[in-house]
Amino acid sequence: MSTKTIRKGFTLIELLVVIAIIAILAAILFPVFARAREKARQTTCISNQRQIATSILMYTQDHDETFPSSTTVWNDIKVDAGVLVCPTKGKGTPIGYGYPEWRSGQALGELPNPTNRLLCADFPQSTAILSGNSIYNQNEVALRHSGHAVCAFADGHVGDESQINEIFSKYDFESGASSDWNNSTISTTPTGGRKYLGEFANTNVLLNLKSLPGHCRLHVECDLFIMKTWDGNNVSNGPDIWMMGITGNPTPMINTTFAISYTLQAYPGTYPADSNPSRGGASEANNSLGVAGSDNVYHIVADGLHTGTTAQVYFNTNAMQTAGDESWGIDNVVVSAL
Ligand SMILES: [Ca+2]
Ligand SMILES: [Ca+2]
Ligand SMILES: [Ca+2]
Q: Which domains does the chain show, CATH number per domain?
């Protein structure tokens, strides 16, 4: 009588193969599940922002077609608290959305192209540095939905964007100055190795912008590097005035002085009206650039009235000493047409 062994269970190899297959399937499927979940959250976010946009537009209709102030917008629009939560950001952030500061008090009729004028967008934090959930620039829009931000626009439509249309020019000079600039002098900071446009003493630096979208004003931001012995409001070896403006406008957007080797400067005020402590209002610690003979970095923000498809922004000084004595440069220039 022959006995045939009947196998029970699996061999170790079979078990390992099954485990390997499960692991491979899991590796393939888990990212798909994560993407599907994120897609669902994004859909909720789009629905939230559509309600917010509708509420902002209803408020606008009730207030002489004027957009709400960025300081009161979240109270002005009457939406359920849950609508203000971006599901990707989570309930820990009660207001997940930001309102563009530059929309404050603007008239609906002023917007040349409502289809690309922002009303609301994913915002990185629940309490903004300046005022409650206001967007001041591109960096304050959070690209948290698979590299995109959900944004609502002034015509009521909602889309997902990787770039805000209202911000069209950004220059960091890391690979030189583009032909938009009349001067291509690039230097590198001793500390941090930042490339910037400069250094200059009495150079009139011009930025020529073309093919601008329809707008009523220009918003310009830059990091201004003030280097060596600036004399501020001192009439001896000064005043050391720095200006930024739009060519053709009667007054510059910024007209101020900076001091490193004198006690008083006009910034953050205007020259000649204001006297403030030297090196005050800087956006970084003293000497963060490591320039021999001291330096300060100022984050300059200004708006100027402008219409038309081309514009020229100027950055210059008034009767400075030589670049060996005192100099300046600019970095991270962002221009928005609003
Ligand atoms: Ca740079
Ligand atoms: Ca000097
Ligand atoms: Ca001087």
A: 21-161 (no CATH), 167-337 (2.60.120.260)
